[in-house]
Amino acid sequence: MGAWQALTGDVLGALVTDSIRVALPFISSGISAGLSANQILSGLTAGGIGVNRARGLKVIAALKTPFGYPGWIKGTSAGQYPGADLFRVAPFPTGSKYTYVYTVTGKNPLTGALETQHVNIVSDTLLTNDTADALAGAIGEGGSSGNALVDVTATLDVVKLSPEFSM
Q1: Which of 32, 57, 59 has its CA nearest to residue 42?
Q2: At 24, is the pLDDT very low, low, confident or very high (cuts 50, 70, 90)?
């Protein structure tokens, strides 16, 4: 099952026309770049890819709300997991379902200077915020992504779904 089918399900399967198939990589890239739906559709039109506006908006909305978002998991608080606004489809295969991209800041113990590192955590299971934050902090403290830091703070930037994402 590809990312399109996993993210949209059968309900929007009828939206996948030939023009949408051609536009899908550009739509995914636009979403990952943080462009608005209007900017994405305008870019497609300027590039010569004609997409029905209503259909394009539905596709963009479906890709921005990933299938399996933890808000749909019964019995858990949505606050325990990353928000739907942080999920993006990676533009390339990642080998795992989820890639958590963190910015870790902390002090360099030798110089005392404040440093920033970027940390990726890959997982085939959806991690809670506490678990992912702890892993990112441990990577920053262990020096796995550069110099070992102290007094680290981990901030989740984005959760990337593999294009081959499936539940």
Answers
A1: 57
A2: confident
Residue type, 60: I
pTM of the predicted structure, to 2 decimals? 0.57
Does residue 60 surpass a pLDDT of 60? yes
Q: Evaluate whether 159 touches 100 at the Cβ level (below 8 Å).
A: yes
- Per-residue tokens: 122: 């890959």
Query: Using CA atoms, how far apart are residues 40 and 47, in angstroms rounded to an integer?
Result: 10
Domain ranges of the chain: 3-64, 78-161
* Those residues with Cβ within 8 angstroms of residue 129's Cβ, 6 or more apart along the chain or in another chain: 79, 80, 81, 82, 156
Return the number of other C-beta atoms located less than 10 Å from residue 70's C-beta: 19
CA neighbor of 107 nearest in space, from 99, 95, 117, 115: 115
Q: What is the pLDDT of residues 75-109, one digit of tens each?
A: 556 567 787 677 777 777 778 888 999 999 999 98
